[in-house]
Structures are given as structure tokens and as C-alpha cells.
Amino acid sequence: MRSAKRGKSTSTAEVVNVSEHGFWMLVDGRELFLAFEHFPWFREATVADLFRAELVEREHLRWPALDIDLTLGSVEHPERFPLVSKVHERPRARVRTRGSSRPRGTRNR
């Protein structure tokens, strides 16, 4: 005997307030605050994009327009999940200007 297919999830995720410091969400009756300090990807997002949050699975939030996925654990305890990805500047190429002197005894290679 086979079980019936799962029905559509009734779990919800809803953004309820936005401030200059972050935004509040209700997720299955829990109130969560996502501070821009811990979640900088949302800082430049439009309010409309913030409000399009989806609870994909029981512990998985998604913002499709922003291409952001988070687990509820990382939202509830951001200190346990420090940012891993950082933007690194490319090293600058050394440019030799005309007339720059070279230490004695060195040659072009």
C-alpha cells in the first residue's frame, strides 16, 4: 500500500516590519529579527523583495528575487554562523614608471 502524496505546506513566513537596522519576520508563530549587521545581503534590497519570503521547508527560508537561502538556525543564532564569503580586492600590479631607479647590480630579466 502506498501513502498519499504530501499536501501543500501550511507553514508560513511573513515579514511584518522593516527598520533601518533590519526586519522582523513571523515564521510558524515565532518572531525573528534579521539585523542587517548579520545579514548584509538584505541591506540594499527593496521592501517588496523582502516581503517575498518563502518557507520552502520547515527550516529553510528563501527570497527568490534576491537569490538568498537561509536556515532558521542561522537566523536564530547568527553568532554561530559567521560570514564566510568576503570580497577581496585584487592585488594591484606594480607599475614601473620611467626614470625609476633600480638598485645597483640588478638587471632586467
Verbal overview:
The structure is a single chain. The chain has 109 residues and is mainly beta. It is built from two helices and six strands, in the order βββαβββα. Strand 5 and strand 6 (68-71) form a beta hairpin. The radius of gyration is 24 Å and the shape is extended.
Record the SSE blueprint.
Blueprint: E1 13-18, E2 22-27, E3 30-35, H1 47-50, E4 54-57, E5 60-63, E6 68-71, H2 72-76
Antiparallel strand pairs: 1-2, 2-3, 4-5, 5-6
Judging from the principal axes of the Cα atoms, what is the shape? Answer: extended
Question: Based on helices, strands and strand pairing, what is the structural class?
Answer: mainly beta
What separation lies between the terminal Cα atoms?
78 Å
Mean pLDDT: 80
Low-confidence stretches: 85-89
CATH topology of the domain at 13-80: NE0471 N-terminal domain-like
Strand order of the largest sheet: 1-2-3
CATH class of the domain at 13-80: Alpha Beta
The H/E string reads EEEHEEEH
Query: Portion of residues in helices?
Result: under 10%
**CATH architecture descriptor name of the domain at 13-80:** 2-Layer Sandwich
Strand content: 25-35%
Give me the Rg, rounded: 24 Å
Number of strands: 6
Biggest beta sheet attributes: 3 strands, antiparallel
The total count of helices amounts to 2
Keywords summarizing the entry:
6 strands; 8% helix; three-stranded antiparallel beta sheet; mainly beta
Quick gist of this model?
This protein is mainly β and 109 residues long. The protein contains two helices and six strands.
